[in-house]
Amino acid sequence: MANYGPYFVQTRDGTRRVSISTEQKLTCAMRMLAYDITADFYDDYLDIAKSTAIEILDHFTKAIWNVDKRHYGQCYYLVDGIYPKWGSFVQAIRNPRTPQRQHFTRMQEAYRKDAERAFGILQARWAIIRGPTRGWSKENLQYIMMTCIILHNMIVKDEHDEDAADPFNPNDIPTRPKKAGIYARPKIDTDVNRNPQ
Description:
This protein is mainly α.
């Protein structure tokens, strides 16, 4: 992260003391996202003040976009009929009559369910999404949400790469009984030479 944002590089302050380390900053940001621990907790745990913890999370959520190197543009939201008819809300068509509209409605409902399941997975992994917003601004909430999505995708990609590097072998399952083998007994020389010369 220090390669993508100068904020995360450890420096010295005005009194020539070493500032908070990169690892402390990353630990603080990741724990705030994963466990939704209040910012003042880090004063005791990592010796980081509440305002500094909030600042770290703010910098982290903005720097993660540079790490991922993807651009996320305008968003559209797949919603059901209870939402207002806004341009960014895509609702299913009530009583579709043509085959094209029926297909659109089926696909829209399927994707909306997929999005709801994905959001449930994000809520399970990142506690900051589960809880109340605690006074974050709309801009910060957007950065926090996108950071959780980007980190989730990075974790999934890393797990996928790990699985690809080490393919599944059913013989590696420890609970599966292995075939018994008969081994030849090793031959040991038991002759003792009592008169060495």
